[in-house]
């Protein structure tokens, strides 16, 4: 009753920004991401008869507060599916996601937990079932089941049965790279959960955001299929700017950007003026991710490192989907 799984984080090129159901985690729009090899979580789940509650270790440290409750509540879903309520587990999770890189470890974390937990309890889930389960831990995590490019289809059913991710193109399809630009002074974020909710509830731009998604998805999928970097980069960058615009139309208004966020965005535009194709995207925080092609790696990295306010630049390639490491 033990299983270990590894999952990588992903960066959204078409953003998930808005929920229609907070409990089931059902989105108001489809989203599309690239799974990254540089950032991952490895999780071992072992169900043990003598346990009377779950026990959770993150990077070898016992966790007792909110993250523990989220993990245990997620295992409740797995217990329910397996008709094994009353079975508790010891969970060991290790993050190779530098916290400072501004990647939420929740995507790789919940994908690895769903995979290891469901295997350990004896469920044999298809990728679709696994993605649907993972979604209920953290929405963006449902895309991390797959390597390469994946799309989370929002679905229409109120029970969430048709809301899960599907693969668009595997890791081997295209060697696109991502530089995570880590800023030195990062103020505390409005969580993605709180930011999304305020946007859905109050932003005067929210409907326009949602209505603009289908065209962006068509465009980016065509770009991915034909390996058209300009098309993919332009679409991703514009989609990110629209998502962030919705926060300015919320009440009260807010933004995730800082001065150095703008400086990095401007640097990416200057790279393009010099003939280097590079495009940015930004999640629910001030750090910037830059998309580029392998032949420009050195120049992109050197240029970004010189930007004032940049603490580090971490490079990543396209990553793989869920893998299982050992079972007993
Ligand atoms: O799944 P969450 O709650 O971590 O929200 C993710 C939201 C964004 O990162 C901003 C966009 C996305 O699609 O990943």
**Overall 3D form:** globular
Overall pLDDT metric: 95
Helical percent range?
25-40%
Biggest sheet record = 8 strands, mixed
Number of strands: 14
Taking pLDDT < 50 over at least 5 consecutive residues as the criterion, the unreliable ranges are: none
Strand content: 25-35%
Structural class: alpha+beta
The hetero compounds bound to this protein are:
(3R)-3-hydroxy-3-methyl-5-(phosphonooxy)pentanoic acid
CATH class of the largest domain: Alpha Beta
The number of domains: 2
Classify the oligomer.
single chain
Alpha carbon gap, first and last residue: 7 Å
CATH architecture of the largest domain: 2-Layer Sandwich
Radius of gyration: 19 Å
Number of helices: 8
Quick tags:
single chain; alpha+beta; Ribosomal Protein S5, domain 2; Alpha-Beta Plaits; 2 domains; eight-stranded mixed β-sheet; 8 helices; binds (3R)-3-hydroxy-3-methyl-5-(phosphonooxy)pentanoic acid
Tell me briefly what this model is:
The chain is an alpha+beta fold and 328 residues long. Helices cover 35% and strands 27% of the residues.
Question: Would you write up a description of this structure?
Answer:
With 328 residues, the chain is of the alpha+beta class. The protein has two domains: 2-171, Ribosomal Protein S5, domain 2; 177-316, GHMP kinase, C-terminal domain (Alpha-Beta Plaits, 2-Layer Sandwich). Helices cover 35% and strands 27% of the residues. The protein has eight helices and 14 strands. It has helices at residues 66-82, 106-120, 127-135, 192-202, 206-225, 229-248, 259-273, 297-305; strands spanning 2-14, 19-21, 26-27, 31-47, 55-58, 61-62, 89-96, 149-153, 164-169, 177-183, 278-281, 288-292, 310-316, 323-327. Strands 1, 4, 5, 6, 7, 8, 9 and 14 form an eight-stranded mixed beta sheet that branches. The chain has a four-stranded antiparallel beta sheet with strand order 11-12-10-13. Helix 5 runs antiparallel to helix 6 (229-248). The radius of gyration is 19 Å and the shape is globular. It starts with a strand and ends with a strand. The chain binds (3R)-3-hydroxy-3-methyl-5-(phosphonooxy)pentanoic acid. Residues 12, 15-17, 31, 104, 106, 138-140, 192-193, 283-284 line the site of (3R)-3-hydroxy-3-methyl-5-(phosphonooxy)pentanoic acid.
């Amino acid at each position: 009753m033990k299983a270990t799984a590894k999952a990588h984080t992903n960066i959204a090129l078409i953003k998930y920004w808005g929920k229609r159901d907070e409990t089931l985690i059902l989105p108001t729009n489809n989203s599309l991401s690239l799974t990254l090899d540089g950032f991952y979580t490895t999780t071992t789940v072992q169900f043990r008869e003598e346990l009377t509650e779950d026990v959770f270790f993150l990077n070898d440290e016992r966790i007792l507060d909110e993250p523990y409750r989220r993990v245990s509540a997620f295992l409740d879903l797995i217990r329910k599916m397996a008709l094994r309520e009353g079975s508790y587990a010891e969970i060991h999770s290790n993050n190779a996601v530098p916290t400072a890189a501004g990647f939420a470890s929740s995507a790789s974390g919940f994908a690895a937990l769903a995979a290891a937990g469901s295997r350990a309890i004896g469920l044999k889930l298809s990728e679709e079932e696994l993605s649907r389960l993972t979604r209920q831990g953290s929405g963006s995590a449902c895309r991390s089941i797959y390597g390469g490019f994946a799309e989370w289809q929002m679905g229409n059913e109120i029970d969430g049965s048709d809301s899960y991710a599907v693969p668009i193109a595997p890791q081997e399809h295209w060697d696109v790279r991502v530089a995570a630009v880590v800023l030195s002074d990062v103020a505390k974020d409005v969580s993605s959960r709180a930011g999304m909710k305020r946007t859905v509830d109050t932003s005067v731009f929210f409907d326009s955001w949602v209505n603009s998604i289908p065209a962006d998805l068509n465009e980016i999928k065509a770009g991915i299929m034909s390996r058209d970097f300009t098309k993919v980069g332009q679409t991703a960058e514009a989609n990110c700017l629209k998502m962030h615009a919705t926060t300015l139309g919320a009440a009260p208004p807010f933004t995730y950007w800082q001065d150095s966020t703008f400086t990095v965005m401007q640097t990416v535009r200057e790279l393009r003026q010099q003939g280097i194709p590079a495009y940015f995207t930004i999640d629910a925080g001030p750090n910037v991710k830059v998309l580029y092609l392998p032949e420009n790696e050195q120049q992109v990295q050197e240029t970004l490192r010189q930007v004032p306010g940049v603490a580090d630049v971490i490079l990543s390639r396209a990553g793989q989907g869920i893998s299982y490491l050992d079972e007993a």
